[in-house]
Recover the amino acids of this structure.
């Protein structure tokens, strides 16, 4: 038997085939575009997801005989996207993505509505799904009138695979329509968002069956037996399943385009004032919390573009030995910020520049600024009672040993680096498919990867970085007031 995990990302779809023991067999991916028809808009054509899906399936079929034994499929997807369908299941308009900010006025109004934060467990961000529908109601009323179902991106793939309107709890918690503590659609939240329960998909846990693969797909893909389609997960919940962050004390830091610091929770501990996201986990009776910064490696990518260097070349110029904090300071708010500021208008800055400032000084300042932003996220999570004694480090930024040493020192916790192989959202989705099909125990399947190395904080430099972090915190109100 084998299992298929699909990670529907913003820029592409990754497919991972694993054995019944969870060992990777093979993987492939396809890419697609994001449209930005107006400033602040970010949209995608769901038909492109289907083309990508069919492409990865064709390749896996040709390359791996084990594909013919697929027994379950799990889908992870980028959260918050609004895919609008009519009564025939036809897509009405391009999907409005998580990083679309057009609904900022609707989000602010919804956030100020009685009971919304209390029931959803979160601030209503412009990128969440509910304010997007209020924007559509106001600006595209003819489309709003035809909306029969609203599906998140992962739920849309589930619909294509199974023919059923089904979504999991972890993804649905990012809509502002879900009672996150009760793990069910909230009549009050739907009313506040001008929506009806019949417009919502059915809810299942991510590790539970959501349906079976459509017969025509099974026949075309050469699958002879009934294939279970799992509930799936939002991308970060799936990544937590992939690295085994399932219980209190477990979590990860992701140095990707955006930065994520996630903590698994044994119970429901919302604190919307902290700007920490509190969502259902992909498995029953568990939740997770995460802080999000919007420009992590994207800050380094920005510096690389304007200097004509690669990100790897920039970080390599710093050498191997961790330096004391830079005299040059950088605020990493190139696209605004979520945790802990919730400020789309925040902007970045360099300070402390002199005639002697070098490219290496600026690189050091950039990755220090990002690391301090992630420290903000850690402090916000700790404020909710989350315990994080160590973190698994993932994402493209972990290719820099210098950045890892810096981040461990700034956060004050050891960073565990997986030995290699697959451990992200695609693996988490495949693990959810395995549990949904076989009924295996979650704890037996969602295990941490083998750790290749541990990066410890450099204690001699911690006091200096504590002082530098305090300066970073003090700088935010200043830069906000002049941006």
């Amino acid at each position: 038997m084998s299992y298929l995990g699909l990670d529907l990302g913003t820029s592409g779809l990754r497919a991972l085939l694993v054995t019944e023991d969870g060992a990777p067999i093979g993987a492939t991916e396809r890419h697609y575009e994001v449209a930005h028809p107006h400033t602040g808009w970010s949209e995608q054509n769901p038909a492109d997801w289907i083309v990508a899906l069919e492409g990865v399936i064709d390749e896996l079929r040709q390359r791996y005989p084990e594909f013919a034994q697929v027994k379950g499929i799990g889908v992870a997807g980028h959260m918050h996207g609004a895919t609008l369908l009519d009564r025939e299941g036809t897509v009405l308009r391009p999907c409005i993505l998580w990083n679309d900010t057009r609904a900022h006025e609707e989000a602010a109004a919804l956030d100020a509505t009685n009971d919304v934060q209390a029931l959803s467990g979160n601030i209503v961000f412009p990128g969440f799904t509910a304010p997007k529908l209020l924007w559509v109601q106001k600006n595209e009323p003819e489309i709003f009138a035809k909306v029969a179902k609203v599906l998140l991106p992962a739920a849309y793939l589930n619909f294509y695979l199974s023919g059923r309107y089904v979504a999991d709890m972890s993804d649905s918690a990012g809509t502002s329509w879900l009672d996150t503590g009760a793990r069910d659609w909230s009549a009050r939240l739907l009313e506040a968002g001008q929506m009806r329960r019949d417009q919502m998909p059915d809810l299942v846990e991510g590790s539970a069956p959501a349906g079976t693969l459509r017969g025509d797909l099974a026949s075309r893909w050469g699958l002879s037996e009934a294939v279970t389609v799992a509930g799936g997960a939002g991308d970060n919940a799936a990544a937590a399943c992939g690295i085994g962050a399932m219980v209190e004390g477990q979590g990860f830091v992701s140095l990707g385009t955006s930065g994520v610091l996630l903590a698994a929770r044994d119970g429901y501990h919302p604190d919307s004032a902290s700007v920490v996201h509190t969502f259902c986990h992909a498995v029953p009776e568990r939740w997770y919390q995460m802080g999000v910064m919007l420009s992590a490696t994207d800050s380094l990518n920005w510096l690389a573009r304007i200097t004509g260097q690669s990100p790897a070349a920039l970080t390599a110029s710093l050498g191997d030995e961790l330096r004391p904090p830079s005299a040059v300071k950088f605020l990493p708010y190139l696209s605004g910020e979520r945790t802990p500021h919730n400020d789309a208008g925040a902007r970045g800055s360099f300070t402390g520049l002199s005639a002697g400032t070098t490219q290496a000084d600026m690189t050091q300042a950039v990755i220090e600024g990002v690391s301090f932003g992630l420290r903000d996220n850690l402090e916000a999570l700790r404020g909710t009672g989350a315990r994080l004694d160590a973190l698994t480090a993932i994402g493209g930024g972990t290719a820099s040993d210098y950045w890892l040493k810096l981040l461990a020192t700034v956060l004050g916790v050891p960073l565990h680096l997986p030995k290699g192989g697959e451990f992200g959202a695609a693996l988490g989705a495949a693990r959810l498919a395995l549990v949904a099909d076989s009924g295996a125990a979650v704890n037996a399947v969602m295990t941490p990867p083998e750790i290749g190395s541990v990066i410890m904080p450099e204690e001699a430099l911690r006091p200096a970085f504590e002082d530098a972090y305090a300066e970073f915190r003090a700088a935010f109100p200043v830069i906000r007031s002049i941006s």
